[in-house]
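Notes from the 1:1 (GR / supervisor)

We went over the backlog. Supervisor wanted to see one worked example end to end before approving the batch request, so GR pasted a single chain during the call. The sequence is below; no edits were made to it. Supervisor asked that the structure be written out right there so they could see what the output format looks like.
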Amino acid sequence: MKKVTPNSLVAPNHSTVDKTKPSKATEQLVSIPLRNHSRPEPVSHFFAVVPDIDTESMLCHASETLASLSVMATDLARELEGPRRHVILAIQQLSALGELLVNRALDTLEPPRGPSDVPSNCRR
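Structure output shown during the call:
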């Protein structure tokens, strides 16, 4: 059986290639703007955290967000079967774990002394 080979490419004559001028492809690659790490990206104000917010408030909101995620994932898992349900339940377990970690961080931040000491914006 005869082996068919594609037309071989002829090597360019290196003596006529101008090495002082970059090729068009090289110019295009070099002209791609690179990320400037000295200038920060513009801030998106769609989702932003107030700069001077206290740690306790951030942890309270994080705990409430994770609790909501856990409830939504549990509700969705009831509607699914098979592997998709297992994925959603894994997400639910990870959100519950995150909520436990945030709550523990809140407890170590300042241990609660009584129901009156819990901030009104963070009722667990």
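Supervisor's comment: Residues 27 and 33 are 12 Å apart (CA to CA).
Batch request approved.
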